[in-house]
Each structure stands twice: as structure tokens, then as C-alpha cells.
Specification:
Organism: Rhodanobacter humi
Radius of gyration: 15 Å
Protein name: DUF4440 domain-containing protein
CATH architecture: Roll
Largest sheet: 6 strands, mixed
Pfam family, one: DUF4440
Number of strands: 6
Number of domains: 1
Oligomer: single chain
CATH topology: Nuclear Transport Factor 2, Chain: A
Distance between the termini: 16 Å
Order of helices and strands: HHEEHEEEE
Helix content: 10-25%
Amino acid sequence: MEPNLVTDPRLAGVLDELRRREPIFHRPECGSSRADHLVMTTEDFWEVGASGRRYSREHVLDVLDERQRDPSPDPWETSDFHCRQLAGAVYLLTYTLRQGERVTRRATIWQRDPDGWKIVYHQGTVVADA
């Protein structure tokens, strides 16, 4: 039933770069301010949360600002990374994120441009009976 997710060896470097950026917005070394997050995302970035709700870039940035004002511990563990090239400089990165008992599958579309990596789209889906 499970797909055979094997990253093309030619994408090993991209996989490694993107793996170090996930989970998005949880890597202080990649930036933690609104200005950092603006640089990390394309102007038309949006996401679908684990709830199934769609969120605009502006809403996501507002939530991240609030998180910065009242930080709380958020232990997490990632696994099962897979990278696929979608077009020229556009890549799909998928992985599993465990936050305590909550397990989600994550998908981020990344675009490499002259200024670095930008997040185009992100989605999280709760895994039933993880």
C-alpha cells in the first residue's frame, strides 16, 4: 500500500539542504523574525494545515509573530524524508513529523532562486492511528 519513496541520487544535495530547513518555521538558524519569514516565503505562499484549513501567507506570519511573543517548548522529530524535482528549480519535499503523540505527514514545495530557498506551499496531514 505504501509508495516506494526513494530520492533520486542526483538530488542528494538538494535533499540535504532542504532537510536542514524542515520543519519550516521551527529552525531558528533559518530565521525567526517576520522579516526572516517574509524572505523565506514566496509572495503567493499559502498552506493547508493538519486541520484541512487553508491559510494565507499573512495569517501564517501573524501566527508566527504570536508564537515569538509567547514561545513554548515544541519538541519534534522528523523522519522519512523524500525529495522530488517538480520543475527546473522547484522541488517537493515530504517527510513525517512527530510532535509528542501527534504524527503528521508534511509536504513543502520549495523554489530555489538567486536569493536562496523560498517556500511556495506547505501542507500537514494528521496520520490516523499512528
